[in-house]
UniProtKB/TrEMBL annotation:
Its EC number is 1.2.4.4. This is 3-methyl-2-oxobutanoate dehydrogenase (2-methylpropanoyl-transferring). Transmembrane segments: none annotated. The keyword Chloroplast does not apply. It comes from Schleiferia thermophila. One of its GO terms (molecular function) is branched-chain 2-oxo acid dehydrogenase activity.
Length: 682
């Protein structure tokens, strides 16, 4: 395929601009190395070829060396330098993240959701975007401007060894997704070379994924990589199926500004022989462009780069006061609405309240979909929490995934980016750990590090807690880990009505919300949990996230000691059991939401009762509950008549299988009562 003279000149202007930037960054390294950065030096031909073939309707995921792609899609050297120097007007993050870590949502450029520095992690979110595009196509939600849109994952070959990349490729071929995996292979992974770190390159590895078309090409020759990229994108765009393009490129620059090539490399001369710039000049001369013209273009590029750097140096620094912006995207749900207990309705178990909430949301919102392990038509969830939903809404909207917790969670980034509302399930809290990488690295930071451009709207349902001798792999409580991930919300309802109202709020919230649902409360089969069954609220019922509920109030009486129990989940029922016979002296506060926390209500009720007991299912040490008790002690000290106490599980690495051992480890009403009586008598 012949490349036109016009395209060659366009590519040359960008390449010499990128080269001038990398030259300047090296010359000024005493300034530019303040913040770690990498450049595309050696990769320019491949990256420019990619940038020339993507469209504004496409979704693009880049990695930290892709500044030539950014120049090609229309970013200026000045804009990139604002990020290099972490300036206030950095167009991607406002000075919050590294160079060539783009977040872009401009109408005239490809959409670039936020991604982290963690290599390989971008494969799942951008595959989620491709899955979202396919979903919109098959369900008729795609608007005319989006027709033919694709997703592109740019990634280094060394990152292809990450396990999460395998999850992405598996789903891409399983679902026949419109995505290009653009793999740049320079043979190095920081100081480890290909011989040390891989059994095969990405092209060879991709042979194991049936249905993934694969291509390999010399990325140092612009005409060759241009034609290959054009062909690959045409396949994805027209045939709506995945392609992997492996691009062999030289690494002419440093790994990053902090890891210099002369420290460890002995192949610099060999890589220099494949410099894409002299080859592109040769093509231009053959097309009739004179050396004088080429020198003039280079001179103009260098002047633009120099002027841009001088201007960027003088640009304003970020204001620390702005750091409070973009923690959480504003939610429209700020007050309780609807009818919590409509007259004439029967009580339903908690799991059905959840089922009805999801059914109502999906009936009202065609952009809503549900996926996870075993939630599809055959089973409808191992707890029957999704029963009949696939029959109601079809297998495109309710479907099973492989056992891929990372993909289940991380794909919501891309799904949300394309305008969908994903509701996903992790089957047990014990198995959320493979998904924490995505939850922490991609979901939780997207809104903050994209400077408000890319909030991730996702509902992540997680059955949690010990019930019925589930043993060490089906009984864990994980809320203390989750509440330490800044940028996500965590709710933990204890009744069916609260679960329904909070699921609705989570759906309309533009932030990631983890909904913890205690398995032992689903059917109220555990003695003492009958109040988890509630009258089903109406379809309009919704509870704002971050508002606690007084389960049972008690008023302070002169001469009589009273106590506030602060708890959530199963703890509500242990508190009710423990306070039998002492109802007038014990107030029970159900947090419902752990992040954000309704500390205002906690503090106001502590002031009334002057004593406080926090009850949790987790072991106490280093827990969310212990941290809450510490905060109460600090901020309410002047109102307290006794130390704040915490009751939790016996401190063991796991919940044992044997039912007697399980009962010994877990809190119960009697254990809570023993501490409560001591507090009341203090």
């Amino acid at each position: 395929m012949t490349v036109t003279k016009k395209d060659l000149l366009h590519a040359f202007k960008i390449m010499v601009t990128a080269r001038a930037m990398s030259d300047l960054f090296e010359e000024k390294r005493e300034i530019t190395s303040k913040y770690v950065h990498a450049t595309s030096r050696g990769h320019e031909a491949a990256q420019i070829a990619l940038g020339m073939h993507v469209l504004p309707k496409d979704y693009l995921s880049l990695y930290y060396r892709d500044d030539s792609v950014l120049l090609t899609i229309g970013m200026s050297p000045f804009e990139l330098m604002l990020q290099l120097l972490a300036k206030k007007d950095d167009p991607f993050s406002g000075g919050r993240t590294y160079y060539s870590h783009p977040s872009l949502n401009d109408p005239d450029k490809p959409k670039i959701p936020h991604q982290s520095s963690a290599t390989g992690m971008q494969a799942i979110p951008i595959t989620g975007a491709a899955m979202g595009l396919r979903f919109k196509e098959v369900t008729g939600l795609l608007n005319e401007e989006e027709l033919g849109a694709i997703a592109v994952c740019s990634i280094g070959d060394a990152a292809m060894t990450e396990g999460e990349v395998s999850e992405a490729l598996q789903m891409a071929v399983l679902k026949k997704l419109p995505i290009l995996y653009f793999v740049q292979d320079n043979g190095w992974d920081i100081s480890a070379n290909a011989i040390e770190i891989r059994a095969q390159n990405a092209y060879e590895y991709a042979a194991g994924f049936k249905g993934l078309e694969r291509m390999t090409v010399d990325g140092s020759r612009f005409d060759v990589v241009y034609s290959a990229t054009k062909k690959a994108i045409e396949i994805v765009r027209s045939e709506r199926r995945p392609v992997l393009l492996h691009v062999d490129v030289p690494l002419l620059g440093h790994h990053t500004s902090g890891v210099r090539k002369e420290f460890y490399r002995d192949d610099l001369e060999q890589h220099q022989l494949r410099d894409p710039l002299p080859y592109l000049k040769k093509l231009l001369r053959e097309a009739g462009v004179s050396d004088q013209q080429l020198e003039e273009i280079q001179g103009i590029a260098r002047k633009i780069v120099d002027d841009s750097f001088d201007k960027a140096l003088k640009a304003e620094e970020p204001d620390p006061l702005d750091l409070s912006k973009h923690y959480f995207a504003p939610t429209p749900i700020t007050e309780e609405r609807g009818e919590r207990a409509p007259v004439g309705r029967d009580k339903v178990v908690m799991v059905d309240s959840a089922l009805f909430a999801i059914r109502e949301l999906m009936a009202k919102h065609p952009e809503a979909l549900l996926y996870g392990q075993d939630v599809g038509r055959r089973l409808g969830g191992v707890f029957r929490e999704a029963a009949t939903l696939a029959e109601h809404f079809g297998d495109e909207r309710v479907f099973n995934t492989p056992i891929q917790e990372a993909f289940i969670i991380g794909s919501t980034v891309g799904m949300s980016a394309v305008g969908l509302k994903p509701i996903v399930e992790v089957q047990f809290a014990d198995y959320i750990w493979p998904g924490l990488n995505q939850l922490f690295t991609e979901l939780s930071r997207s809104y903050f590090l994209s400077n408000g451009k890319w909030p991730v709207s996702a509902v992540i349902r997680v059955p949690i807690g010990a019930y019925g001798s589930g043993g060490p792999y089906h009984s864990s409580s994980v809320e203390s880990v989750l509440t330490n991930i800044r940028g996500i919300k965590v709710v933990y309802p204890s009744t069916g009505a609260d679960l329904k109202g909070l699921l609705k709020a989570a759906f309309y919230d533009p932030n990631p919300v983890v909904v913890l649902e205690h398995k032992g409360l689903y059917w109220s089969k555990v003695k003492g949990t009958e109040e988890a069954k509630t009258i089903e609220p109406d379809a309009n019922y919704i509870i704002p996230i971050g508002k606690a509920r007084i389960v049972r109030s008690a008023e302070s009486v002169r001469g009589e000691s009273t106590c506030l129990i602060v708890t959530y989940g199963m703890g509500v029922y242990w508190a009710l059991e423990a306070s039998k016979g002492m109802e007038s002296r014990v107030e029970i506060l159900d947090l419902r939401s752990l992040v954000p926390l309704d500390f205002e209500t906690v503090a106001s009720r502590v002031q009334v009762h002057n004593k406080c007991l926090v009850v949790t299912e987790e072991p106490v040490n280093n827990s969310f509950a212990q941290a809450l008790a510490g905060r109460i002690s600090e901020e309410c000290f002047q109102y307290l008549d006794a130390p704040v106490r915490v009751v939790g599980s016996v401190d063991t690495p796991a919940i044992p299988l044997n039912s007697k051992l399980e009962a010994f480890v877990l809190p119960n009403g009697e254990k809570v009562k023993n501490v409560l009586e001591k507090l009341l008598g203090f």
